[in-house]
Write the structure tokens for this entry.
Amino acid sequence: KGQDLDCTAATTWFETFAANTIAYIDGEDGSKTVVVCQKDNAENVTTLSQNIVFDTTFPTGTLSIAGGAEFTGAATVVLAGTFNEPVTYATSTENLDCSTATYSGSTVTSFSDAVFALVGEDGRRLAVVCFKDRAGNLAFLEDDIILDTTPPDGTITINAGAAYTNAATVDLTF
């Protein structure tokens, strides 16, 4: 088994056929060819090969909540992400386990329309995106935003409480 295997060479090693056999892929990430030699009892030899992409590199990306805003008054925001390679992704709040997450069905390199609910009371909220490349390598991104749904409270006084004025400028007290 191996990319440079010559099935006709006198030194080729054969083993007893097994329906499932493990082959080891060496070297750098990239396209690899796995070659298998088959020999029958009459010494007839067949060469079989198949290509596969060897990918041990974790995907990378970026994530933003509400266009990168620091604050939001809405409990529902939009997430956007970009990735360095095609991935499927899953979104959640703080407690997302990437190994058991339910991933999107389509493969994307970016998204900008994931509607996301910020769970809990006002304060710092976290969004987590797990993403998986075509080889199954998992990675995650986090971003946070401050949820503030409470409007400011206060009063305003014009000219120390005057009901009328003839001046174009007035004094405001908050």
